[in-house]
Design goal:
By secondary structure, this protein is mainly β. About 5% of the residues lie in helices and about 30% in strands. Belongs to the YjdM family.
């Protein structure tokens, strides 16, 4: 039976101690099957707390100005078949196509799961 790598430092030298798995390199302890802090923070939620997944349809809950344009995405506009971006450093964690505007990135705090 192979043990999983450490979720904190990715070390392959983990070992079991009773119910716990322990990493000798960074001293991180966890139970098998338990989500790490990085995995928990990777969950993307909409403005009201619903968990979003790839392929969902979302509705814009606030008028959004489009950078570099005089256009506005109005409240109630739907974005279908979204793709979640986990490495979004600027906060735009949804990649989608919006009818009438084309491809764009949105922040999850301004959408609601439809």
């Amino acid at each position: 039976m192979s043990l999983p790598n450490c979720p904190e430092c990715q070390s392959e030298y983990t070992y079991e101690d009773g119910e716990l798995l322990i990493c000798p390199e960074c001293s991180h302890e966890w139970k098998q099957g338990e989500l790490s802090d990085a995995e928990i923070s990777a969950v993307i939620k909409d403005a009201v707390g619903n968990v979003l997944t790839d392929g969902d349809t979302v509705t814009v809950i606030k008028d959004l100005k489009i950078k570099g344009s005089s256009s506005v995405v109005k409240v109630g506009t739907k974005a279908k078949n979204i793709r979640l971006l986990t490495d979004a450093s600027d906060g735009h964690d949804i990649d989608c196509k919006v009818d009438g505007f084309g491809a764009m990135k949105l922040k999850s705090e301004f959408v609601r799961k439809a």
